[in-house]
Amino acid sequence: MMPTFKSILLAGAAALLPLGAPAHAAPEEAPVAEVVVAAPETEGETASDFDSEAYAEQQKAKMQKEMDEAVALIEKMFDTSSLPPIEPARLTLAQQTMGALIPAGSLEKMIDNLYGKMFKAIMGEFGGQSDLLLSIKTGVESDQIAKLDEATKGKVADMFDPHRKEREDQITKVIKPLISEVLGDMEPPMREGLAKAYARKFTAAQLTDLNGFLATPTGTLYANEWMALQADPEVMVAVIRAVPPLVTKFIDRAPQIEKDMKDLPKEKQLSDFDDKELAKLAKLMKVDVKVLKEQRDMWNSDSVEASDAVAVEAADDYAVDAAADAATAAADAADYATDAVADPAYDRSNWSAADLKRVEDLETAYENASLAAQQAAEEAAANASKRSKIPNK
């Protein structure tokens, strides 16, 4: 069983996955024992170092830095600095609207609606009652275990961990209040942001009408349910069922899209500019036209030799990358072989037919993708050698 704090972190992360993620995804993947692994120990680093407060603070600081960068990027994408100020009275009306539309607990209600079943499934994985996990622990094929009823599976899991229910209850006891607290923290900024958006979108009269409706019994019911209904099981099933046709349409129209792209005029290179165009470009960029002329001449001189050099270099780079990939694959194979020797669960003769087929299908897909990548690289190198406008390095 994994350390409790790691179980809690994983459960919390799963509960806060982006909306629309299929709730059945987790149980179908590899067992938790494969997904959640202990942090690798480097030379001089022990498991106690990994669990230390210093390590936790270091990882927290690293995560905070990444989150700050992500927030800065979003703020740049959705820059609001140029928006005009909002009339205070209008903003007050919009804040009243959001107070009704997002009452305390709205987000938690939506998350419970969406992730209630998935959270229970994750707890089942933690408790060791899934078919796949029991198969690994016992060596019995998972399709055989699937024939057992849930009560029997529970008894089998209890033999491995008599205290698993206590662990599940403890995780739930810790994680549920934590999620409630986090979602509660998110609601005030969400109300404020939506209030500003509504104040800009609707007039004071329209906001007054909205607030009047939300004050009625029907409006109050709507305000309490509209957010949770977005994650209603019937809504989620309908959305998921609509995805395959959408993907199919893109696949069907891919050839035409590719053809349309090819029919577009090719992008001009600096070598295509005449002196008049170079002068105009230099003026726009506020640089000396001589700089651009020198760059253009470099593009035009010894183009064939340059393209051959690039092609050779590309081939060399590909060879180096291929060798590195081969070495990595060999190392992975060695690690896998070591695991297979140490753990009979990696012996394919112990796998179910369905699990074996899934692994073999993925291996075949990987091999085909590798061959396709190699062929694409060779074609790219051949095309590079034919090009006549590649600058010297």
Cα radius of gyration in angstroms: 30 Å
What's the pLDDT, averaged over the residues?
Answer: 74
**Biggest β-sheet description:** none
- Which structural class do the helices and strands define? mainly alpha
Give the helix level as a range of percent.
over 70%
Order of helices and strands: HHHHHHHHHHHHHHHHHH
Shape: extended
Strand content: under 5%
Q: Between the first and last Cα atoms, what is the distance in angstroms?
A: 56 Å
Number of domains: 2
Uncertain ranges: 1-42, 336-342
Tell me the number of strands: 0
Number of helical segments with 4 or more residues: 18
Short note summarizing the structure:
The chain is mostly helical and 393 residues long.
Mind explaining what this structure looks like?
With 393 residues, the protein is mainly α. The chain has 2 domains: 4-36 and 48-240, no CATH class; 302-386. The chain is built from 18 helices and no strands. The chain has helices spanning 4-15, 25-28, 32-35, 47-50, 53-77, 88-101, 106-126, 131-138, 142-145, 150-160, 164-201, 204-214, 217-229, 233-263, 275-285, 289-300, 303-342, 353-386. The model is unreliable at 1-42 and 336-342 (pLDDT under 50).
